[in-house]
Write a structure and sequence with these properties.
Length: about 270
């Protein structure tokens, strides 16, 4: 039975399509996973462009997505959700209301006879020290307490403003920068050197679908891409991982061992 992985839906912000239309596509993809007999579904961070849980309120919208999560878990299919840098303030709302299992840190799971290291990917590897310092502050209980004192209207407006500004300041994500400049490749190399039995290092965050064979010749670093433009995901079946595209309207770079290949498998 296949296992599916996806990340970086960024629901709440418009891109190639509106957030509402992207939410409908995500729901159709989740239905597809169930129809294929999914053994489990892993949603690996940045599901929302911003998320915060006040004591008696959560951000409005996303009802189709949240309802589908509850429907799938009620049907017996486990869903694992990882926090990302845009929704790191998830607490107990999703587990309690939709039945998902929530992860705050990368995990190692053994699935279909393979060992997988799975995480969102923010703040891992060398570099990005400014974000790492900021994340320590944002993870502090006092920071969450102070932010919860803001009225949700102001808090959401501020968060979405800075979320959009952070994307404007980022360099182009459309090119593979080589193993020496890809922080998650470096992180994966280090983890595999510590544990050579890891078969797949699966992350999001990078926004570029990548399938890169690591230096030991066996393990692979796979980035899930995103749904703002690429709509890519991973299917694990019989221990073999395949990067696929749900939407066939965009040419997707797929990197294998550093070589670009514009052909990507597709399911629809």
């Amino acid at each position: 039975m296949p296992i599916f992985f996806a990340s970086d839906f960024h629901l709440g912000t418009d891109a190639r399509t509106s957030s509402r239309e992207r939410e409908r596509e995500v729901v159709r993809w989740l239905d597809h996973c169930v129809s294929e007999g999914a053994d489990a579904i892993y949603l690996v961070g940045d599901l929302f462009d911003f998320w915060f849980e006040w004591r008696h309120a959560v951000p409005r919208g996303h009802v189709r997505f949240l309802g589908k999560l509850a429907e799938i878990t009620d049907g017996g299919t486990p869903i694992h959700v990882f926090t990302g840098n845009h929704d790191l303030w998830m607490q107990d709302y999703l587990p309690r209301e939709t039945g998902v299992t929530l992860h705050y840190q990368p995990v190692v799971h053994e699935l279909q006879g393979r060992k997988l290291l799975i995480g969102h990917g923010d703040g891992l590897g060398p570099g990005d020290y400014g974000y790492k310092r900021m994340k320590k502050v944002m993870d502090a209980p006092w920071a969450k307490w102070l932010y919860a004192r803001l009225h949700p209207n102001l808090a959401m407006r501020l968060a979405l403003f800075f979320s959009h500004k952070s994307r404007e300041g980022q360099p182009s994500e459309a090119e593979f920068n080589g193993p020496d400049r890809e922080w998650l490749v470096a992180y994966s190399e280090r983890r595999v050197a510590q544990d050579p039995s890891i078969d797949y290092c699966i992350f999001g965050h990078r926004h570029l679908p990548i399938d890169y064979r690591l230096s030991n010749g066996n393990s692979r670093y796979i980035n899930l891409g995103e749904w703002l433009n690429y709509c890519t995901y991973l299917r694990l079946e019989n221990g073999e991982a395949s990067l696929l595209r749900w939407d066939d309207t965009v040419a997707v770079p797929l990197y294998r061992g550093g070589a670009a290949n514009l052909a990507i498998n597709r399911e629809s």
